[in-house]
Amino acid sequence: MTQLFAGPGGLDLGAIRAGLPSVGYEVDANAVATRLAAGLPTVHADVRDHDPADTSDRRVLAGGPPCQTYSVAGEGSGRAALDQVLTAVKRLAARDTARHVFGDERTGLVLEPLRWALQAMDTGRPYEAIVLEQVPAVLPVWEAYAEALEAEGYRVATGVLAAEQYGVPQTRRRAALVARLDHPVALPAPTHRAYRKGVARHEGNPALLPWVPMGEVLARDEPFVVVSNYGTGGDPKKRGRRSSAEPAATVTGKISRFRVVSEDGRELPRFTSSEAGLLQGFPADWPWSGCDIAQQIGNACPVLLAQALFTAVTSA
């Protein structure tokens, strides 16, 4: 499998569990350091400087392009340029090879998987399957991808998935695309119940497993409450709170700033890198390396969600 924007290994672990060893392209030196320490095959390079001819394994193409300009936690230039991005998708589908220029170059990186997929098609060695994930704001881009890929003979499914419905101890939402060449494909069916504030985990669809709370994966000596900055609007009294009996809120690169307190209000140690990684589905001993580890963890795709996506295309 060829993986673009490979990050520190979330997609890799999901792919490996689904029986798909991969080679990851990653430009960030810190993420590359983590990947190499973990023994993951890695090409330290900008995906814009490469194409499908540089890799021999073309069975599956995957990736999670940088989300900073699209995320609601970011400055929003990608969301503001969405119409330009959708136009660029159509131009790529028409084989217009002119470079697309945006105010923030990270915005245009979301186009790279389509460029790779179309170039592979044009060389007569198309990818059999494609798996992509990003923040929910990118769903319109994946829907435009779907139109372009269907014109090439792919079957495509897109949508927004909730990570806790795949066993991740975190309520993260991701826009996903899965595609198969000449074979029907569907997004993975949930295996766990959706989290709802104030609704007990044993309630809901009995055919699904309960969602997973933080306390089930973090080996802490006592119950705790995580105090984040989500939804504050600048008001400290509105800071989001999740107890250890609930899933974590979305893990971001700012997770090291979240306070952890006891049920009676005592300050407790904040999350370690190992703990933050566990909330994303990484093993406790994952060899986080380089600098800005919190950002690496926040940028990663949750492992169990990645596994579900790859299983969806390999079992189709």
Strands, helices and their partners?
Layout: E1 2-4, H1 10-17, E2 23-26, H2 29-37, E3 42-44, E4 60-63, H3 77-80, H4 82-93, H5 112-122, E5 129-134, H6 139-150, E6 154-162, E7 173-181, H7 214-217, E8 224-227, E9 241-243, E10 259-262, E11 267-268, H8 273-279, H9 293-299, H10 303-314
Parallel strand pairs: 1-2, 1-4, 2-3, 4-5
Antiparallel strand pairs: 5-7, 6-7, 8-9, 8-10, 10-11
Helix pairs in contact: 1-10, 4-6
Mean of residue pLDDT values: 92
Q: What would you give as the CATH superfamily of the largest domain? A: Vaccinia Virus protein VP39
Number of helices: 10
End-to-end separation: 16 Å
What gross morphology would you assign? Answer: globular
Low-confidence stretches: none
Q: Cα-atom Rg, whole angstroms?
A: 19 Å
Side-by-side strand order of the widest sheet:
3-2-1-4-5-7-6
Query: What about the largest sheet?
Result: 7 strands, mixed
Number of domains: 2
DSSP helix fraction? 25-40%
**What amount of the residues lies in strands?**
15-25%
What is the CATH architecture assignment of the largest domain?
Answer: 3-Layer(aba) Sandwich
Topology as a string of helices (H) and strands (E):
EHEHEEHHHEHEEHEEEEHHH
CATH topology name of the largest domain = Rossmann fold
Q: Which oligomeric form is depicted?
A: single chain
Number of extended strands: 11
